[in-house]
Amino acid sequence: MGTTQVFLEADAPRVNCPAHGPTVRQVSWARHGAGHTRSFDQQVAWLATQCSKRAITELMRIAWRTVGAIITRVWADTAAGVDAFAGLQRIGIDEISYKRRHKYLTVVVDHDSGRLVWASPDRERATVHAFFDALETSGEGRCAQITHVSADGAEWIADVVSKRCPNAIRCADPFHVVGWATEALDAVRREAWNNARREGHTRNHGWAHGRRATVATGPAQALRRARYALWKNPENLTDRQRVKLEWIAKTDPRLYRAYLLKEGLRTVFKLPADQAGEALDSWVAWARRCRIESFVTLQRRIVGHRAQILASIAHGLSNGLIESVNTKIRLITRIAFGFAHPGPLIALAMLTLGGHRPALPGRQ
Q1: Among 74-88, 103-117, 187-201, 343-357, the least confident range
Q2: Is the pTM of this model over 0.85?
Q3: If both were cysteines, with which of 266, 312, 315, 344 could 68 make a disulfide (CB 3.0 to 4.6 Å apart)?
Protein backbone atom coordinates (compact mmCIF):
# COMPACT_ATOMS: atom_id res chain seq x y z
CA MET A 1 0.00 0.00 0.00
CA GLY A 2 1.43 3.37 -0.99
CA THR A 3 1.64 6.37 1.25
CA THR A 4 -0.71 9.30 0.87
CA GLN A 5 0.45 12.86 1.37
CA VAL A 6 -2.08 15.43 2.51
CA PHE A 7 -1.45 19.16 2.12
CA LEU A 8 -3.52 21.70 4.01
CA GLU A 9 -3.67 25.30 2.86
CA ALA A 10 -5.06 28.25 4.77
CA ASP A 11 -5.02 31.95 4.11
CA ALA A 12 -2.96 34.21 6.38
CA PRO A 13 -3.79 37.63 4.94
CA ARG A 14 -1.53 40.64 5.27
CA VAL A 15 -2.87 43.62 7.18
CA ASN A 16 -1.69 47.18 7.59
CA CYS A 17 -1.00 47.45 11.31
CA PRO A 18 -0.90 51.03 12.69
CA ALA A 19 1.98 50.08 14.99
CA HIS A 20 4.06 47.71 12.84
CA GLY A 21 3.02 48.54 9.29
CA PRO A 22 2.17 45.86 6.70
CA THR A 23 2.46 42.45 8.35
CA VAL A 24 0.96 38.96 8.17
CA ARG A 25 -2.11 38.62 10.34
CA GLN A 26 -1.82 36.41 13.41
CA VAL A 27 -3.68 33.11 13.14
CA SER A 28 -4.93 30.81 15.89
CA TRP A 29 -3.23 27.65 14.65
CA ALA A 30 0.35 28.98 14.46
CA ARG A 31 2.58 31.27 16.47
CA HIS A 32 3.15 34.66 14.89
CA GLY A 33 6.15 34.63 12.57
CA ALA A 34 6.54 30.84 12.79
CA GLY A 35 6.72 28.55 9.79
CA HIS A 36 4.96 25.66 11.50
CA THR A 37 1.65 25.04 13.19
CA ARG A 38 1.29 24.99 16.98
CA SER A 39 0.73 21.23 16.92
CA PHE A 40 3.93 20.70 14.93
CA ASP A 41 5.86 22.93 17.36
CA GLN A 42 4.39 21.07 20.31
CA GLN A 43 5.34 17.67 18.93
CA VAL A 44 8.91 18.78 18.19
CA ALA A 45 9.25 20.20 21.71
CA TRP A 46 7.95 16.93 23.21
CA LEU A 47 10.40 14.91 21.13
CA ALA A 48 13.27 17.20 22.17
CA THR A 49 12.66 16.31 25.82
CA GLN A 50 12.41 12.57 25.07
CA CYS A 51 14.88 11.49 22.40
CA SER A 52 18.05 12.23 20.46
CA LYS A 53 18.86 15.01 18.04
CA ARG A 54 19.10 12.61 15.11
CA ALA A 55 15.72 11.03 15.85
CA ILE A 56 14.00 14.43 15.93
CA THR A 57 15.50 15.74 12.70
CA GLU A 58 14.89 12.51 10.76
CA LEU A 59 11.35 11.95 12.04
CA MET A 60 10.17 15.55 11.61
CA ARG A 61 12.34 16.27 8.53
CA ILE A 62 13.63 19.61 9.78
CA ALA A 63 17.07 21.08 10.42
CA TRP A 64 18.51 21.12 13.94
CA ARG A 65 18.57 24.93 13.98
CA THR A 66 14.81 24.80 13.28
CA VAL A 67 14.40 22.56 16.33
CA GLY A 68 16.21 25.22 18.37
CA ALA A 69 13.87 27.95 17.14
CA ILE A 70 10.81 25.81 17.92
CA ILE A 71 12.01 24.94 21.43
CA THR A 72 12.63 28.62 22.15
CA ARG A 73 9.12 29.56 20.97
CA VAL A 74 7.43 26.81 22.97
CA TRP A 75 9.30 27.68 26.16
CA ALA A 76 8.50 31.38 25.73
CA ASP A 77 4.80 30.51 25.52
CA THR A 78 5.04 28.12 28.47
CA ALA A 79 6.91 30.63 30.65
CA ALA A 80 4.33 33.30 29.88
CA GLY A 81 1.56 31.06 31.19
CA VAL A 82 3.13 29.89 34.46
CA ASP A 83 4.60 31.52 37.55
CA ALA A 84 8.01 29.84 37.80
CA PHE A 85 8.87 31.70 41.02
CA ALA A 86 5.67 30.92 42.96
CA GLY A 87 6.35 29.75 46.50
CA LEU A 88 10.11 30.01 46.09
CA GLN A 89 11.83 29.98 49.51
CA ARG A 90 14.90 27.74 49.54
CA ILE A 91 17.15 27.96 46.50
CA GLY A 92 20.54 26.78 45.33
CA ILE A 93 22.74 28.76 42.94
CA ASP A 94 25.57 27.28 40.91
CA GLU A 95 27.33 27.54 37.56
CA ILE A 96 27.91 24.93 34.88
CA SER A 97 30.16 24.89 31.83
CA TYR A 98 28.18 24.27 28.66
CA LYS A 99 30.80 24.90 25.98
CA ARG A 100 34.56 25.17 25.62
CA ARG A 101 36.45 28.40 26.14
CA HIS A 102 34.87 29.16 29.50
CA LYS A 103 31.23 29.36 28.44
CA TYR A 104 29.05 29.06 31.53
CA LEU A 105 25.43 29.06 32.62
CA THR A 106 24.27 30.23 36.04
CA VAL A 107 21.43 28.02 37.26
CA VAL A 108 18.96 28.35 40.14
CA VAL A 109 17.18 25.31 41.59
CA ASP A 110 14.28 25.10 44.05
CA HIS A 111 15.33 22.88 46.99
CA ASP A 112 11.73 22.07 47.88
CA SER A 113 10.44 20.98 44.48
CA GLY A 114 13.74 19.93 42.90
CA ARG A 115 13.00 21.81 39.69
CA LEU A 116 15.15 24.17 37.67
CA VAL A 117 13.59 27.63 38.06
CA TRP A 118 16.01 29.90 36.17
CA ALA A 119 19.11 29.79 33.97
CA SER A 120 21.15 32.42 32.16
CA PRO A 121 24.50 32.69 30.33
CA ASP A 122 27.66 33.87 32.16
CA ARG A 123 28.72 33.59 35.79
CA GLU A 124 29.17 37.00 37.33
CA ARG A 125 27.49 39.37 39.77
CA ALA A 126 25.34 40.89 37.03
CA THR A 127 23.94 37.43 36.23
CA VAL A 128 22.85 36.82 39.84
CA HIS A 129 21.41 40.34 40.00
CA ALA A 130 19.41 39.50 36.86
CA PHE A 131 17.83 36.51 38.63
CA PHE A 132 16.78 38.61 41.63
CA ASP A 133 15.47 41.32 39.29
CA ALA A 134 13.30 38.69 37.59
CA LEU A 135 12.20 37.36 40.98
CA GLU A 136 11.21 40.81 42.21
CA THR A 137 9.43 41.63 38.95
CA SER A 138 7.32 38.47 39.25
CA GLY A 139 5.84 39.66 42.54
CA GLU A 140 6.52 42.37 45.06
CA GLY A 141 8.48 41.27 48.11
CA ARG A 142 9.53 37.89 46.70
CA CYS A 143 13.23 38.48 47.38
CA ALA A 144 12.32 38.89 51.05
CA GLN A 145 10.51 35.52 50.95
CA ILE A 146 13.75 33.67 50.22
CA THR A 147 14.76 32.00 53.49
CA HIS A 148 17.79 29.85 52.49
CA VAL A 149 20.39 30.08 49.72
CA SER A 150 23.02 27.38 49.13
CA ALA A 151 26.06 28.05 46.96
CA ASP A 152 29.69 27.03 46.54
CA GLY A 153 31.17 29.98 48.43
CA ALA A 154 31.96 32.06 45.33
CA GLU A 155 32.11 35.76 46.15
CA TRP A 156 30.22 36.78 43.00
CA ILE A 157 27.23 34.84 44.36
CA ALA A 158 27.61 35.61 48.08
CA ASP A 159 27.95 39.37 47.60
CA VAL A 160 24.75 39.66 45.57
CA VAL A 161 22.76 37.35 47.88
CA SER A 162 23.79 39.39 50.94
CA LYS A 163 22.53 42.56 49.22
CA ARG A 164 19.32 41.25 47.66
CA CYS A 165 18.29 38.77 50.41
CA PRO A 166 19.93 40.11 53.57
CA ASN A 167 17.69 38.01 55.83
CA ALA A 168 18.22 34.73 54.00
CA ILE A 169 20.39 32.06 55.62
CA ARG A 170 23.39 31.38 53.40
CA CYS A 171 24.69 27.79 53.32
CA ALA A 172 28.10 26.76 52.01
CA ASP A 173 27.89 23.56 49.98
CA PRO A 174 29.73 20.76 51.87
CA PHE A 175 30.86 19.10 48.63
CA HIS A 176 32.68 22.24 47.51
CA VAL A 177 34.17 22.89 50.96
CA VAL A 178 35.64 19.38 51.08
CA GLY A 179 36.73 19.98 47.48
CA TRP A 180 38.84 22.91 48.73
CA ALA A 181 40.58 20.52 51.13
CA THR A 182 41.12 18.01 48.31
CA GLU A 183 42.78 20.73 46.23
CA ALA A 184 45.02 21.65 49.19
CA LEU A 185 45.92 17.96 49.61
CA ASP A 186 46.76 17.59 45.92
CA ALA A 187 49.07 20.62 46.16
CA VAL A 188 51.00 18.77 48.89
CA ARG A 189 51.09 15.59 46.79
CA ARG A 190 52.47 17.46 43.77
CA GLU A 191 55.10 19.10 45.97
CA ALA A 192 56.15 15.69 47.34
CA TRP A 193 56.27 14.27 43.81
CA ASN A 194 58.43 17.14 42.54
CA ASN A 195 60.80 16.73 45.51
CA ALA A 196 61.15 13.02 44.72
CA ARG A 197 61.92 13.83 41.08
CA ARG A 198 64.56 16.38 42.08
CA GLU A 199 66.18 13.78 44.31
CA GLY A 200 66.89 11.68 41.22
CA HIS A 201 64.05 9.18 41.22
CA THR A 202 63.68 9.44 37.43
CA ARG A 203 65.19 7.74 34.40
CA ASN A 204 65.37 8.42 30.68
CA HIS A 205 63.01 6.27 28.65
CA GLY A 206 63.30 6.50 24.88
CA TRP A 207 62.28 9.40 22.68
CA ALA A 208 58.98 11.22 22.29
CA HIS A 209 58.25 14.05 19.82
CA GLY A 210 61.97 14.51 19.16
CA ARG A 211 62.88 14.68 22.87
CA ARG A 212 64.16 12.13 25.31
CA ALA A 213 61.27 11.24 27.64
CA THR A 214 61.88 11.32 31.40
CA VAL A 215 59.88 8.81 33.42
CA ALA A 216 59.42 8.89 37.19
CA THR A 217 60.55 5.79 39.09
CA GLY A 218 60.49 4.61 42.71
CA PRO A 219 58.83 7.01 45.18
CA ALA A 220 58.14 9.60 42.47
CA GLN A 221 56.18 7.11 40.39
CA ALA A 222 54.30 5.83 43.43
CA LEU A 223 53.28 9.34 44.47
CA ARG A 224 52.07 10.11 40.98
CA ARG A 225 49.75 7.10 41.14
CA ALA A 226 48.58 7.86 44.69
CA ARG A 227 46.11 10.57 43.69
CA TYR A 228 42.95 8.48 43.83
CA ALA A 229 43.93 6.76 47.08
CA LEU A 230 44.28 10.20 48.65
CA TRP A 231 41.12 11.63 47.07
CA LYS A 232 38.65 8.82 47.72
CA ASN A 233 36.63 8.45 50.90
CA PRO A 234 38.11 5.74 53.17
CA GLU A 235 34.99 3.57 52.94
CA ASN A 236 35.34 3.44 49.14
CA LEU A 237 39.03 2.49 48.97
CA THR A 238 40.13 -0.71 47.25
CA ASP A 239 42.58 -3.04 48.99
CA ARG A 240 45.35 -1.78 46.74
CA GLN A 241 44.57 1.83 47.59
CA ARG A 242 44.59 1.05 51.32
CA VAL A 243 48.08 -0.42 50.90
CA LYS A 244 49.09 2.74 49.05
CA LEU A 245 47.91 4.89 51.98
CA GLU A 246 49.83 2.74 54.45
CA TRP A 247 52.95 3.21 52.32
CA ILE A 248 52.43 7.00 52.30
CA ALA A 249 52.00 7.04 56.10
CA LYS A 250 55.39 5.34 56.49
CA THR A 251 57.37 7.16 53.78
CA ASP A 252 55.90 10.69 53.75
CA PRO A 253 54.38 11.74 57.10
CA ARG A 254 53.77 15.30 55.86
CA LEU A 255 51.62 14.13 52.94
CA TYR A 256 49.78 11.70 55.21
CA ARG A 257 49.11 14.50 57.68
CA ALA A 258 47.59 16.52 54.82
CA TYR A 259 45.39 13.51 54.02
CA LEU A 260 44.21 13.35 57.64
CA LEU A 261 43.41 17.07 57.54
CA LYS A 262 41.24 16.55 54.49
CA GLU A 263 39.44 13.64 56.13
CA GLY A 264 39.06 15.63 59.36
CA LEU A 265 37.23 18.40 57.54
CA ARG A 266 34.99 15.87 55.78
CA THR A 267 34.12 14.33 59.16
CA VAL A 268 32.85 17.70 60.45
CA PHE A 269 29.93 17.52 58.01
CA LYS A 270 28.87 14.13 59.41
CA LEU A 271 28.45 15.45 62.96
CA PRO A 272 25.22 16.71 64.57
CA ALA A 273 24.74 20.46 64.44
CA ASP A 274 25.41 20.89 68.16
CA GLN A 275 28.84 19.25 67.81
CA ALA A 276 29.90 20.60 64.43
CA GLY A 277 30.88 24.10 65.61
CA GLU A 278 33.37 22.88 68.19
CA ALA A 279 34.74 20.25 65.78
CA LEU A 280 35.21 22.86 63.05
CA ASP A 281 37.04 25.20 65.43
CA SER A 282 39.31 22.33 66.47
CA TRP A 283 40.03 21.56 62.83
CA VAL A 284 40.88 25.22 62.15
CA ALA A 285 43.32 25.24 65.11
CA TRP A 286 44.91 22.01 63.81
CA ALA A 287 45.27 23.37 60.28
CA ARG A 288 46.65 26.68 61.56
CA ARG A 289 49.60 25.00 63.28
CA CYS A 290 50.16 22.16 60.76
CA ARG A 291 52.96 24.02 58.90
CA ILE A 292 51.55 22.94 55.55
CA GLU A 293 51.13 26.12 53.50
CA SER A 294 48.09 25.03 51.46
CA PHE A 295 46.16 24.05 54.59
CA VAL A 296 47.20 27.15 56.51
CA THR A 297 45.73 29.13 53.61
CA LEU A 298 42.64 26.92 53.57
CA GLN A 299 41.87 27.45 57.26
CA ARG A 300 41.68 31.20 56.64
CA ARG A 301 39.11 30.52 53.92
CA ILE A 302 37.19 28.19 56.25
CA VAL A 303 37.13 30.84 58.97
CA GLY A 304 35.68 33.32 56.46
CA HIS A 305 32.86 30.87 55.62
CA ARG A 306 32.35 29.45 59.13
CA ALA A 307 28.78 30.74 59.54
CA GLN A 308 27.71 29.41 56.12
CA ILE A 309 29.33 26.01 56.78
CA LEU A 310 27.57 25.59 60.12
CA ALA A 311 24.28 26.79 58.59
CA SER A 312 24.58 24.08 55.93
CA ILE A 313 25.01 21.44 58.65
CA ALA A 314 22.20 22.83 60.82
CA HIS A 315 19.66 23.05 57.98
CA GLY A 316 20.80 20.01 56.01
CA LEU A 317 21.21 21.99 52.78
CA SER A 318 23.80 21.31 50.13
CA ASN A 319 24.18 21.73 46.40
CA GLY A 320 23.77 17.99 45.90
CA LEU A 321 20.40 18.59 44.27
CA ILE A 322 21.93 21.21 41.99
CA GLU A 323 24.76 18.85 41.05
CA SER A 324 22.11 16.32 40.04
CA VAL A 325 20.39 18.96 37.90
CA ASN A 326 23.77 19.99 36.44
CA THR A 327 24.44 16.38 35.44
CA LYS A 328 21.15 16.34 33.53
CA ILE A 329 21.98 19.70 31.93
CA ARG A 330 25.30 18.25 30.74
CA LEU A 331 23.37 15.45 29.05
CA ILE A 332 21.04 18.02 27.49
CA THR A 333 24.10 19.97 26.35
CA ARG A 334 25.29 16.93 24.40
CA ILE A 335 21.88 16.61 22.79
CA ALA A 336 21.79 20.34 22.06
CA PHE A 337 25.28 20.41 20.51
CA GLY A 338 25.14 22.57 17.40
CA PHE A 339 23.00 25.40 18.72
CA ALA A 340 24.86 28.63 17.95
CA HIS A 341 23.52 30.44 21.03
CA PRO A 342 22.67 29.33 24.58
CA GLY A 343 19.02 30.41 24.27
CA PRO A 344 17.73 27.11 22.79
CA LEU A 345 19.84 25.14 25.29
CA ILE A 346 18.30 27.05 28.20
CA ALA A 347 14.81 26.59 26.71
CA LEU A 348 15.37 22.83 26.37
CA ALA A 349 16.71 22.62 29.94
CA MET A 350 13.72 24.54 31.28
CA LEU A 351 11.22 22.41 29.34
CA THR A 352 12.91 19.22 30.57
CA LEU A 353 13.76 20.13 34.18
CA GLY A 354 11.50 23.08 34.99
CA GLY A 355 8.41 21.06 35.88
CA HIS A 356 6.46 22.05 32.75
CA ARG A 357 7.23 19.37 30.17
CA PRO A 358 5.34 19.80 26.89
CA ALA A 359 2.50 17.37 26.18
CA LEU A 360 1.90 15.59 22.91
CA PRO A 361 -0.71 17.47 20.86
CA GLY A 362 -4.14 15.90 20.94
CA ARG A 363 -3.41 14.02 24.20
CA GLN A 364 -5.03 14.78 27.53
Answers
A1: 187-201
A2: no
A3: 344
